[in-house]
Structure formats: C-alpha cells, structure tokens
Structure to design on (525 residues):
C-alpha cells in the first residue's frame, strides 16, 4: 500500500529541513511529526526546542545541538553516513530562518534534502494574539525582517498595508520613528507580542507614537504588527484571555492519575506541573490477590467494589498474568466509588452497576448500597480490592446491611521521593499560582516531601474533608469543588481565575497572576 504523501518521510541519506512552529508544540504538522518519528539524527537548537516536539522521536534517536558546530556540516556528515536526518527550525524554514543558506550549502555539497514547511511566526503569533492580518478593508500584508537594521521604511509607508515586523525587539523606538518619518501617522495602531503561542505570551496594544514606551521590558522573541487590523484584538483575543492563562499549577498526583486533569488545565491556559506525592507498589504478599482473582472466576462473590483507579489497574494486571479479560466479570455486580474509577472500568470493558448519586467517596457509595436480600442475592459476599491504608467506613456500612466483606490489599501506597530542588523552592517560594489537592493524603504527603505552599498560592481542594486537612496544616482554602471530582475541581479553579481577572480589569489593575503578587516577582503589564 502506498504511504500518503503527508506521512512519507525522507530516505536514508536525505536531510529533511523541518519547521516546528513558533512555540506551541501543538502547532507541529503531521508531516513534521512523521519525519521526527523516523529520524536517526535530529539537529536543532536545544534551547529553542520544546521537549514535547522531541517526544515524537524514537528513544534511540541522536539529538545534536546546533551549538556543537556548523549545522550544515553536521547534517551532511550524518546523511552521508546513511542516516535519516531532520534539521529542525523554529517557525517555517523559509520565513526568517536559514533555508536559503543551509539549503543552498547542502545542495552545493551534493546532499539531497526535502523541505517540510511549518507554521510561521508571521501568521501563528498574530493568530494567537487575536489580530487578523487581513480584513475586507486591508488586503495586503508586508513582512519585514529588521534583524540586521538598515530598513528603508519609506518602502512601507502605505497605510493600507498591514506590516509584520520581525527582529525589531531591541529597536522598537527606531522602527516606529522610521515609519512615522516615512509618512505613517503616529496614531497608527501597533501591537507587540513577545514569546508568541507559548503560555508566556504577552501582547501590548498601542500606537506608533507610544509603542516603544508601552512595550518596554518585553522579552524576545517578539513581533510587531502595524495597521488598523490591530483594532480587532479587542474582540478576537482568545488565548491570553483564557481563565488560567500562564498559571503554573501544581498537580500532586501520580502521572497516570494526573493525565486527564493536566489536559483539562491546559485547555484553560494553565501550565500543569505533575508532582507525584505517593508511589503505588504491589502488595508485599500477593497470595491474597491471587485467591481473590480465583474467587472472581469461580463465583465466590456477588459484588466487586472498586474504590480507586489504582484498584482497577491492580485487578487488570492480575487478569493479564492469568490470561483473563473483562469477560471474567460475567454474572458479577460491580460498583465504582466515583467517575474516574468508573471511567477506568469502562476502559477495561466493564460498565459499573452502581455508583454514588452524590458524594463520590466510600461514604457516598454506602448511602446508595442495597441491603442484602437472601431471596434476591444468591451470595452475600463482597470483594473490596483496595489500598493497604484504606479506611473501614464502607466495610462497616456494608456489614450493617448484611453483607460479608473480604478486604484484600491490591496495592500499597508509600510516600513518594521529594521532587527536585527547583520544584521544592517554587512551592515554598510562591513560584506556583495554584495547587490542586485531590485528597487529604495529597495535602499531607506534599507538605511532607516538599514543604508548605506559599501564602500567595491559590489552594484548591476536592471536598470538605480535604479542606479540613488543608486548614489543619495551616493552609488557606480558596477554592472547593462543587462536587468531589477532579474535573469539577479544575472547572472551579478556572472559574476562580476568570473572576479574579474580571475584578482586576474592573478595578483598572494590572493583570497579574497569583505568583506575581509575591515580593520581588517580575511585574508584567
């Protein structure tokens, strides 16, 4: 079968000159991802390449930093050795990058190459800033590379044309004066966006007269847009107005548990940092679980209760060991303590028969649990594969209802190792804007391994019990989920962030994240 052109990759001995977009790893094209997946050698400036881009590479790929030498010579040497080479550029290789020079040098050296265009900063950054480059009244866009100076601004004096100016971060005043001297009105709308398409993006909207002073201190790389199209930003700004835009949020859960929560937070514009507070390990004596799985197959139980996603994972792993699958649950009734656990079961191929109506906890499940009825229930035995530190509240309630419970240790939870020093310093020093506590144990364990969050950090908790624990440890609870689910917790934090932003705008205050409220924090416009 022919490989689609969009997925075809360079042959060995060929250099693929690939654009990776202006900053957001999500702007990598399908073709670029395919090239990375098949690359033997990748040549890139490591300092300007997001880790998520290189995550598309095979584990055995050779990553060569352009700081190690002439990238053309490095690429040619690898290609002549029969390796698939990817030369990565920020943005699009042909716009403000080195395609002309490096492509020409490869051609001169007799090295075959291909070009994989990328999303250019010229279009990508204005798009993320909410500024269309054209509209019905402005149909011309002119791109200026001012990085080497010497621009004849009289060439760009036509007010009908939108200007996109690259490389002028250190010469904003000279650029604006040059355009005004060339005939552009000093009241012409102008915007400058730095670190475009990343969660550090910042946009200042001004005029040619005031842009230099208004944009003072902005970081490179930055891009200037000049023209009436800048006025559209008031209505079209979508990225920087996300409720948690740029917030660094600590998610103290295991990697597996944090995945869906982190994805949701990214959707709100946040930058999640996953810090495991517990480590999940197998039980010290596996015989209990072996007998439990055998009992599942032989019909020993009427019900199986899953109180966590880790319990689902533990049973799945045992099933795999014995060559079993979800069909082994035929004839059994299955209960799940909450929506995340239920989702893990559905992924396994098991639809729960019972979940709590309200509070998603052992207590909530106990409230809806049916009493044992010897006429309806042929067996009165319930299996609970749980953690070694699980509470007995649910067992006590089920026992009162006439059920016989078998509590089996499916996994052990131990406190995780402390996170790296920069994370610990950020937690205690106010480097995080928010921390999301999904259980009382995450409060205790995070403080135990990393210290107490700074008082500027927004503290968000999943429910009343977690709030009580946080307060016992001296934390001020700012946000509590309306219902005990991680999705609801993320929504509640986003709502808090949106209200906070609205209040700052209403009061005429600078838009500042919680971490920027601490003493010594860099203030952004």
């Amino acid at each position: 079968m022919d490989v689609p052109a969009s997925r075809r990759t360079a042959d060995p001995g060929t250099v693929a000159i690939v654009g990776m977009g202006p900053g957001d790893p999500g702007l990598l094209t399908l073709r670029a991802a395919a090239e990375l997946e098949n690359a033997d050698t990748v040549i890139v400036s490591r300092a300007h390449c997001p880790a998520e881009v290189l995550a598309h590479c095979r584990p055995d790929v050779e990553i060569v930093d352009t700081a190690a030498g002439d990238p053309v010579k490095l690429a040619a040497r690898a290609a002549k050795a029969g390796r698939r080479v990817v030369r990565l550029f920020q943005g699009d290789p042909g716009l403000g990058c080195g395609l002309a020079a490096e492509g020409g040098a490869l051609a001169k050296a007799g090295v075959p190459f291909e070009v994989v265009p990328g999303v250019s900063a010229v279009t990508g950054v204005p798009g993320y800033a909410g500024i269309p480059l054209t509209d019905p009244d402005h149909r011309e866009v002119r791109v200026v590379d001012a990085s080497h100076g010497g621009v004849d601004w009289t060439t760009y004096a036509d007010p009908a044309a939108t200007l996109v100016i690259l490389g002028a971060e250190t010469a904003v005043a000279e650029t604006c004066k040059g355009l005004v001297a060339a005939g552009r009105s000093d009241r012409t709308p102008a915007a400058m966006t730095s670190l475009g398409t990343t969660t550090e993006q910042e946009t200042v909207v001004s005029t040619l007269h005031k842009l230099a002073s208004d944009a003072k201190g902005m970081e490179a790389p930055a891009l200037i847009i000049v023209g009436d199209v800048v006025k559209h930003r008031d209505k079209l700004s979508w990225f920087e107005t996300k409720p948690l835009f740029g917030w660094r949020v600590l998610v103290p859960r295991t990697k597996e548990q944090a995945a869906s929560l982190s994805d949701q937070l990214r959707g709100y514009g946040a930058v999640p940092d996953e810090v495991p507070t517990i480590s999940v390990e197998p039980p010290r004596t596996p015989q209990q679980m072996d007998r439990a799985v055998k009992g599942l197959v032989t019909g020993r139980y009427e019900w199986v209760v899953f109180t966590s996603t880790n319990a689902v994972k533990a049973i799945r792993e045992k099933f795999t060991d014995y060559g079993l699958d979800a069909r082994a649950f035929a004839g059994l009734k299955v209960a799940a303590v909450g929506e995340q656990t239920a989702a893990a079961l559905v992924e396994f191929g098991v639809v729960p028969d019972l979940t709590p109506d309200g509070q998603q906890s052992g207590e909530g499940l106990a409230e809806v649990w049916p009493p044992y009825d010897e006429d309806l229930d042929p067996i009165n035995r319930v299996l609970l594969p749980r953690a070694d530190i699980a509470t007995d509240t649910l067992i006590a309630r089920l026992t009162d209802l006439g059920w016989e419970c078998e509590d089996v240790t499916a996994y052990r939870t131990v406190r995780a190792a402390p996170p790296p020093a920069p994370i610990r310093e950020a937690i205690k020093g106010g480097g995080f804007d928010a921390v999301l506590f999904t259980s009382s144990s995450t409060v205790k364990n995070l403080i135990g391994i990393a210290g107490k969050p700074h008082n500027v950090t927004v503290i968000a908790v999943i429910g009343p019990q977690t709030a009580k624990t946080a307060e016992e440890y001296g934390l001020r609870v700012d946000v509590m989920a309306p219902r005990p689910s991680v999705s609801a917790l993320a929504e509640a934090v986003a709502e808090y962030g949106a209200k906070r932003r609205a209040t700052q705008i209403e009061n005429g205050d600078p838009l500042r994240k919680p971490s920027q409220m601490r003493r010594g924090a860099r203030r952004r416009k």
Remarks:
- The chain has a mean pLDDT of 90.
- Residues 131 and 233 are 5 Å apart (CA to CA).
